């Protein structure tokens, strides 16, 4: 990561990371939930912690918020050690999964809560609350009790309640998972717009890879409590480091084979590749494969024959399951090919078969 | 949904029960309070003399006020014991929660009388507590006020009703979603601020219910003053009991009962209103 050159303990300059997670581990009894996590978040960045349930993403968020203590390791924010502070002394705010609004307070008082308990000047509070209400388009609901609001509205209040405190870092714990699909899409784009507008650093937790791709500057993929890969959405999709990443982010063909004397062999597929000899795993995206109608291929391409076993129509594209012989199945995504059966020729670029760690 | 016949059949037993064992006795009691006793027999002469006696004889007012003082003390003491206990159990007891909960509940299975006699043994002039105080030379003679005093009544009733106060408070604390408490901390509120701004308001219905239990149950208690109260610890229910028993003045006893019923009902009405004000579902 780029932060390696930055002095670790001295005051952080403008280029330094806002948040540094240093070798953090967390155990619950015998269960190791997080294993040696190191992660830096730059100021103004939108970073997503992505992972299956049980991967430790929420635990990492709770460590940063202060609801849990790391078993080992340290967390620093802007040159200040964070993990030794209680949650109420951290300049971090959280948007909780089910919003966790105060049921006995109306929308306005919910939003003003943070300012009041931290003793903001009384004259300042109404203005800032109104500003926050306007930002999330909830001004007309200022007097409403949370129980009378819809999920999406509660979501906005939760966001305003956190942002009104102008935190350096906003933690979002699956904030959109309780919303229905359409509202979710809409909130995604609003969230992204808001983050750009106010420039606060967002640390977003989700299990939804599409959501992660749509929102993030960088994605940190967690697997069984360890970081699998940290990269931008484009990079993590086009250059997955492991077979797990390739499978988790989008769809892919994971090809098991070997490389020997400059030739990669995966079942019936064979192509020249200058790399170390030995067993190899490749990720080949379904859309990297195309139908070869004229029988010709470029020098940098691999051509193979396969029998279409199944065709799934998905509107803009269709997904084929192709049997390439020797037990090798490949998924192929074509745009509007029309119905296909029987044997066909397919090609893909060698550069698109990404060698990954198993 | 349900047929008329079904609804009728289902509603008759409870209505019968309420009518026979609740409304009818209350009506009889109410009627008695306007009757009189002449030459040792009950006569159905409608009059207000019983209520007049209540207002003019200072004895009754004094006992009634003492009773309310004792009930209020019991309420306060059992809240002071029950709330922290419930708070600790709900938020900080961790794995010991179940065990501690059972320990709080267990005394409820012990007979009221047994507990009353136990306090007698503890507080008496040659009781356990006095023995202890003298053995360690805190005092040289038995301390008198421990037994047969309002203090003893408050102590015993607090002991008996604290679980009743604990239970509704504990239930309401358990109902507070933990993320709400975390949200408060997250927004910068320390433990005290979180308690007063979030936990206390959200547990108010339980607190009110517990307080009402302690007050109302103490208000009508006659066994504790009988066992450990002595003459200075007499409560209004003892007077009623005497009037219905040895003194054979049912009308006056009924009049006092009507007054207590009035106090209790207005109290329940008040807490009902307050509980509604503090509920946010």
Characterization of the model:
- The complex is a heterodimer of chains A (358) and B (281).
- Chain A has two domains: 2-240, Rossmann fold; 251-356, Nucleic acid-binding proteins (OB fold (Dihydrolipoamide Acetyltransferase, E2P)), CATH 2.40.50.140.
- Helices cover 23% and strands 36% of the residues of chain A.
- Chain A contains eight helices and 20 strands.
- In chain A, the strands form four sheets. Chain A has a six-stranded mixed beta sheet, with helices on both faces.
- In chain A, helix 2 (107-117) packs parallel to helix 4 (151-163).
- Chain A is elongated and about 75 Å long.
- Chain A starts with 16 loop residues before the first strand and ends with a strand.
- Chain B has a two-stranded antiparallel sheet.
- In chain B, helix 5 (112-123) packs parallel to helix 10 (223-229).
- Chain A binds chain B through residues 65-67, 86-89, 92-94, 96-98, 100-104, 113-114, 117-118, 145, 147, 161-162, 165, and chain B through 177, 179-180, 182-190, 193-194, 197-198, 201-202, 278, 280-281.
Write the layout of secondary structure elements.
The complex is a heterodimer of chains A (358) and B (281).
Chain A (H helix, E strand, L loop, with lengths): L16 E12 L2 E12 L3 E6 L5 H9 L6 E6 L2 E2 L10 E4 L11 H11 L7 H11 L15 H13 L5 E5 L7 H18 L2 E6 L2 H7 L2 E6 L2 E6 L1 H6 L4 H6 L4 E8 L2 E4 L2 E4 L5 E7 L4 E3 L9 E14 L2 E7 L5 E6 L7 E8 L4 E3 L2
Parallel strand pairs in A: 3-8, 3-9, 6-7, 7-8
Antiparallel strand pairs in A: 1-2, 1-4, 4-5, 9-10, 11-12, 11-14, 12-13, 14-20, 15-19, 16-17, 16-19, 17-18
Chain B lengths: L3 H29 L3 E3 L2 E3 L5 H8 L1 H35 L4 H9 L6 H12 L4 H8 L14 H25 L3 H9 L4 H29 L3 H7 L6 H9 L5 H28 L4
């Amino acid at each position: 990561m780029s932060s390696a050159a930055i002095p670790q303990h001295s005051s952080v300059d403008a280029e330094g990371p806002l948040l540094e997670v240093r070798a953090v581990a967390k155990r619950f009894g015998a269960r190791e939930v997080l294993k040696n996590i190191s992660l830096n978040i730059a100021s103004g960045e939108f970073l997503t912690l992505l992972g299956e349930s049980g991967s430790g993403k929420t635990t990492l968020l709770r460590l940063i918020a202060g609801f849990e203590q790391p078993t080992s390791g340290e967390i620093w924010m802007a040159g200040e050690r964070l993990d030794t502070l209680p949650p109420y002394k951290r300049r971090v705010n959280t948007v909780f999964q089910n919003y966790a609004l105060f049921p006995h307070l109306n929308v306005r008082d919910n939003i003003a809560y943070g300012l009041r308990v931290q003793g903001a000047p009384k004259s300042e509070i109404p203005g800032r609350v109104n500003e926050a209400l306007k930002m999330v388009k909830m001004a007309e609901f200022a007097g409403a009790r949370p129980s009378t609001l819809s999920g999406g509205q509660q979501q906005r209040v939760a966001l305003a309640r956190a942002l009104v405190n102008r935190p350096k870092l906003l933690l979002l714990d699956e904030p959109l998972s309780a919303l229905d699909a359409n509202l979710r899409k809409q909130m995604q784009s609003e969230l992204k717009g808001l983050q750009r507008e106010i420039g606060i650093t967002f640390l977003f937790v989700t299990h939804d890879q599409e959501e992660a791709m749509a929102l993030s500057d960088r994605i940190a993929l967690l697997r069984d409590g360890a970081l699998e890969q940290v990269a931008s959405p484009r990079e993590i999709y086009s250059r997955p480091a492991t077979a797990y990443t390739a499978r988790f982010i989008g769809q892919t063909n994971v090809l098991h084979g070997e490389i020997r004397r400059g030739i990669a062999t995966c079942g019936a597929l064979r192509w020249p590749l200058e790399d170390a000899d030995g067993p190899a795993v490749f990720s080949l995206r379904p859309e990297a494969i195309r139908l070869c109608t004229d029988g010709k291929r470029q020098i940098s391409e691999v051509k193979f024959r396969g029998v279409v076993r199944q065709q799934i129509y998905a509107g803009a594209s269709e997904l084929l399951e192709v049997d390439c012989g020797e037990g090798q199945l490949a998924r192929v995504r074509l745009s509007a090919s029309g119905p296909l059966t029987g044997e066909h020729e397919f090609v893909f670029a060698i550069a698109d078969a990404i060698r990954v760690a198993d | 949904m349900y047929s008329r016949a079904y609804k009728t059949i289902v509603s008759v037993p409870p209505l019968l029960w309420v009518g026979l064992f609740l409304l009818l006795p209350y009506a009889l009691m109410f009627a008695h309070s306007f009757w009189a006793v002449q030459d040792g027999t009950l006569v159905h002469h409608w009059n207000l003399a019983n209520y007049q006696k209540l207002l003019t004889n200072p004895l009754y007012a004094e006992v009634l006020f003492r009773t309310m003082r004792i009930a209020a003390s019991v309420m306060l003491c059992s809240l002071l014991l029950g709330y922290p206990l419930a708070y600790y159990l709900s938020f900080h007891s961790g794995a010991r929660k179940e065990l501690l909960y059972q320990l709080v509940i267990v005394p409820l299975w012990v007979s009221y009388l047994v507990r009353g006699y136990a306090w007698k043994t503890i507080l008496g002039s040659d009781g356990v507590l006095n023995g202890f105080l003298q053995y360690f030379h805190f005092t040289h003679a038995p301390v008198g006020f421990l037994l047969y005093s309002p203090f003893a009544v408050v102590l015993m009733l607090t002991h008996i009703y604290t679980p009743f106060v604990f239970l509704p408070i504990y239930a309401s604390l358990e109902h507070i979603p933990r993320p709400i408490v975390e949200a408060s901390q997250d927004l910068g509120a320390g433990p005290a601020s979180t308690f007063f701004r979030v936990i206390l308001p959200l547990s108010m219905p339980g607190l009110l219910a517990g307080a009402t239990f302690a007050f109302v149950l103490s208000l009508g208690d006659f066994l504790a003053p009988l066992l450990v109260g002595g003459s200075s610890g007499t409560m209004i229910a003892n007077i009623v009991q005497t009037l219905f028993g040895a003194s054979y003045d049912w009308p006056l006893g009924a009049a006092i009962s009507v007054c207590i019923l009035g106090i209790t009902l207005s109290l329940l009405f008040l807490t009902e209103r307050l509980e509604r004000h503090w509920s946010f579902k």
